[in-house]
Amino acid sequence: MVLPDADMEMTTRIAADSAFGCAGQRCLASSVAITVGEAGDVFARQISESATHRKVGYGLDVGVEMGPVISPASRQRIEGPHRRGVAAGAKPLVDGRSARVAGYEHGNFIRPTVLDNVDPMSELAQTEVFGPVLSVMRAKTIDDAIEMVNRSAFGNMACLFTSSGAAAQAVPLRNARR
User: Fold this and answer.
1) Which residues on adjacent β-strands are paired with residue 91?
2) What is the end-to-end Cα distance of the chain in Å, rounded?
3) What residues act catalytically?
4) For the whole model, what pTM was predicted?
5) Are 132 and 18 in contact (CB under 8 A)?
6) Model pLDDT, residue 176
């Protein structure tokens, strides 16, 4: 959850590392960011820039920040919800599908992907994509954002980006449904 008073540079760096590190294939990788109010446009722009500039390639090559996903089946599984999410109205800000990396043309690469205006009830919001896809959902108020978080079936972790200690203490997140 990203509040308007968050340090956007730090927030973007942490969110990008979480969503795209290890090609998004780790248990605590972020797959959803919920922005509140005017944080939406700023965060969407900055996370898109970060995704666009992340160097994708063979993980042992110097400077590579993100390697391939684990298998062709994994690549197809990740691209499916992405395709259906766009068909359902999500706006692709950065489309990482069909990625090709010179020298590794048969690799299982997906570049970082950012989808904006994801419907909280959509497959993208209700599925653990387990790949380098970040869905941005927008809330008008902090109460709306809290409701989005609390409706989620997932509950491994949640992060709140704000510079206000009072705002952080006021966020009553409950355990996710099981």
Assistant:
1) 116
2) 21
3) 27
4) 0.91
5) no
6) 44
